[in-house]
Amino acid sequence: MAKKHETPNLDQLESGPWPSFVTGLKRLAERSDMIGDVLGQLEHSYQTRKGYWKGGTLTVRGYGGGVIPRFSEVADQFPDAAEFHTLRIMPAPGMHYNTDILRKLCDVWDEHGSGLLALHGQSGDMMFQGARSEQVQPAFDAINELGFDLGGAGPSVRTSMSCVGSARCEHSCYSEANAHRKVMNSFVDDLHRPSLPYKFKFKFSGCPNDCMNSIQRADMAVIGTWRDDIQVKQDEVRKFVQERGRHEVIDNVITRCPTRCITLKDDDTIEIDNRNCVRCMHCINVMTKALSPGQDRGATILVGGKRTLKIGDLFGTVIVPFMKLDTEEDLDRLVALGESIIDFWAENGLEHERCGEMIDRIGLANFLEGIGLDVDPSMIVHPRTSSYIRTDKWDEEAEKWRARQAEGAA
Amino acid sequence: MSEQQFRQAIESGVPDAFPYMHPLMAKNYGQWDWHDRPRPGVLHHVAKNGDEIWTVRAGTQRQMDTGTIRKLCAIADEYAEGHVRFTIRSNIEFMVSSAAQVDPLVAKLEQEGFPVGGTGNSVSMISHTQGFLHCDIPATDASGVVKSLMDELYDEFVNERMPNRVRISTSCCQINCGGQADISVNVQHTKPPKIRHDLVAGVCERPAVVARCPVAAIRPALVNGQPTLEVDERKCICCGACFPPCPPMQINDPEHSKLAIWIGGKNSNARSRPSFQKLVAAGLPNNPPRWPEVSALVKKILRVYQEDARDWERLGEWVERIGWPRFFELTGLPFTRFHVDTWTGARYTFNHSTHIRF
Ligand code: HEM
Ligand code: SF4
Ligand code: SF4
Ligand code: SF4
Ligand code: SF4
């Protein structure tokens, strides 16, 4: 019953040293007419340089999103590819699996879908690609029974990602897996029933290396950092200097510090001016054995990162320079912060306007006031350069700053 | 059947990671002390209590049939300890608790066609989008572009011989879900959408489409008495933002949807602040099945970076040091009026100094 189309273009993608997705698709086509026709349609796309899928609406009972419907525009030529829907399923934080659960997920997909699985999508979902409309509900039910749930799609909270972090990385400054799960599972309703202005993404990176690329991709980025001094093992520093030579240490560590706060001493130890360290991670990345983040760890929160549409790419902006994330209460505060941001944006964002675009439109200070946070000089690179601003409430605002300073000192 | 008899979804959200984690990772959670890399593709982590774990990272094709995943599971059971994890770039990681298990695992993976690498200063797997295989708005493929590029960059994946790590992404439309990267291969449309007026009234919510355009180039119009839309072609920047909400605004074109290359995106805070990628070349043909013009240029940029950059300089940091005129000189790429920014904040990208290299 295997369905075969000639695929001269795709065949060329079976050669070369990198694993070929085409070979996998062909293997599936031997038992799935759907994949047979999907291959045919894909070859047609290669020949005509055009895509032939269109969207639609489809979901599972009780939910509003999480399924990406795909209908073929060339179903007359490829009838078994007429419906080729994707289920987005959220993996565990850090994308950990044992082989038992991976095989069970494969079993479900062999039974209820095409057998094609993308690990993982750019937002971090397992993407179960290739279900006909009537297969979507049974596939979801079986996956759901295994302890997995649908991810986000549409104007909703989206599937999140966290780095491997504490599970295997010595740079980690908080428990990414716990924060990820706690925050996301506080927003399941906003995840499953799209009713926000547009998408909203949380991402969790354990340190400023930001392996999850959260600063450019997350509406709310939680990036680990520390407040106290970098931990230095001077005997390991000395060993490193002796092994690599002073020249290399000076060129690769000392002069690469963005704030020039490391000194190499005559006895091959180092001294760090921690008040001027901006926690960039570079020296720690190079001298993994000798240096580590301090002990007073937590996270910086940045809001508003996103890609191009509509006003151009935006970075996340610091709105909380530091918060502890050690206890359940700390995590509750993180969830509450997420709630106040999403609530304010749901209220004030225009249709199809990302949180960062709203902040750009209304101004950072107004946004902070809206969510009840005080301005802080760590939120800016430098103060304003334009004099076009009314400052008639200067004394009042200055008094707020003084009161906060006094409170902080007390 | 009545509604009640249907199974209720369990809104379990994100599952707990600990049951799936390698036991040594769960045991030493938050207690790791340092790491090194015994060879490309292998990480060695040591916990504060002296526990050690070795990780072997291998490239995958991301779009996998269940047969491939079952093969990876069989390798994990026989050569590792039954646990795997995936990275953000679709690499698979196997964890083992003794150094002796590393070489047999590496050999098995290579024998089965999974390249071991992607660690440290290598070119890791390319961030992957959907393309012709599954998206409804792509101008090109994703899996095929990535496969072609990774075939060409294979040696840089299995070695660590770049000045710093290199992250590459591809995007098959200008929504750019591939993301920022050291090198980014993105679709760049060059002609305004061709509107199929007969279909607009039936499928498009016209005010929503008008609102979506970043440069306000779309207005409602009447054609043959039918409500439709029209585009001010002098204003249009060919971004394709109108196509997802209104498929009759056909932006994809086999000839005029080109590929462009951007460099210098960096999200890490290491050394310099995070940065966005910058346009270096456009007008590359969308040439399946192997996009040879794209891989030739990507390889050329990598070669110049490899020769000229200092240790630990990311691609963007290297250009920042040597200056853009030298980048264009070293790569032989033409510098054109299109490289000069026109978008919000463009003036901050001009040279307001006499700092010039001669
Ligand atoms: C073993 C623990 C890890 C360490 C010590 C580590 C270290 C680093 C370092 C040092 C950087 C910054 C590079 C620089 O600019 O100098 C970085 C960036 C990055 N890492 Fe990791 N990493 C680890 C795990 C991972 C994992 C598991 C992934 C997933 C594949 C990953 C993906 C990335 C990505 C995507 C970046 C992006 C950098 C950018 O675009 O600027 N890292 N990592
Ligand atoms: S973001 Fe930091 S803590 Fe997380 S994996 Fe990367 S280097 Fe480790
Ligand atoms: S972390 Fe960065 S800023 Fe801090 S001392 Fe090290 S190199 Fe300097
Ligand atoms: S980049 Fe565009 S075309 Fe490609 S998968 Fe993303 S939205 Fe679809
Ligand atoms: S392609 Fe972009 S600029 Fe042109 S009309 Fe469509 S939305 Fe507007």
Nutshell version of this structure?
The complex is a heterodimer of chains A (about 400) and B (about 350). Chain A is an alpha+beta fold and about 400 residues long.
Ions, cofactors and other ligands present here are: protoporphyrin IX containing FE, iron/sulfur cluster
- Tally of distinct domains of chain A: 3
Considering DSSP H and I runs of 4 or more, what fraction of the residues of chain A is helical? 25-40%
Shape label of chain B: globular
Description of the molecule:
The complex is a heterodimer of chains A (410) and B (358). With 410 residues, chain A is an alpha+beta fold. Chain A has 3 domains: 8-153, Alpha-Beta Plaits, CATH 3.30.70.2500; 158-227 and 297-379, Sulfite Reductase Hemoprotein, domain 1 (2-Layer Sandwich), CATH 3.30.413.10; 231-292, Alpha-Beta Plaits (2-Layer Sandwich), CATH 3.30.70.20. Chain A contains 15 helices and 16 strands. The radius of gyration of chain A is 26 Å and the shape is globular. The model of chain A has no long low-confidence stretch (mean pLDDT 97). With 358 residues, chain B is of the alpha+beta class. Chain B folds into 3 domains: 18-112, Alpha-Beta Plaits; 127-190 and 254-349, Sulfite Reductase Hemoprotein, domain 1, CATH 3.30.413; 194-249, Alpha-Beta Plaits, CATH 3.30.70. Chain B has 9 helices and 14 strands. Chain B has helices spanning 23-27, 66-79, 102-111, 143-158, 197-203, 206-212, 292-308, 315-322, 324-331; strands spanning 32-39, 42-47, 52-58, 63-65, 83-86, 92-96, 168-171, 183-189, 194-195, 218-223, 226-231, 249-250, 257-263, 278-284. Chain B has a 5-stranded antiparallel β-sheet with strand order 1-2-3-6-5, covered by helices on one side. In chain B, a hairpin with a 2-residue loop joins strand 10 and strand 11 (226-231). In chain B, helix 4 (143-158) packs parallel to helix 7. The longest helix of chain B is centred in the last third of the chain and has 17 residues, at 292-308. The radius of gyration of chain B is 24 Å and the shape is globular. Classes of the chains: A alpha+beta (410), B alpha+beta (358). Protoporphyrin IX containing FE sits between chains B (35, 43, 87-89, 91, 164-165, 167, 266-268, 270, 314) and A (164, 168-169, 171, 209, 211, 213, 285).
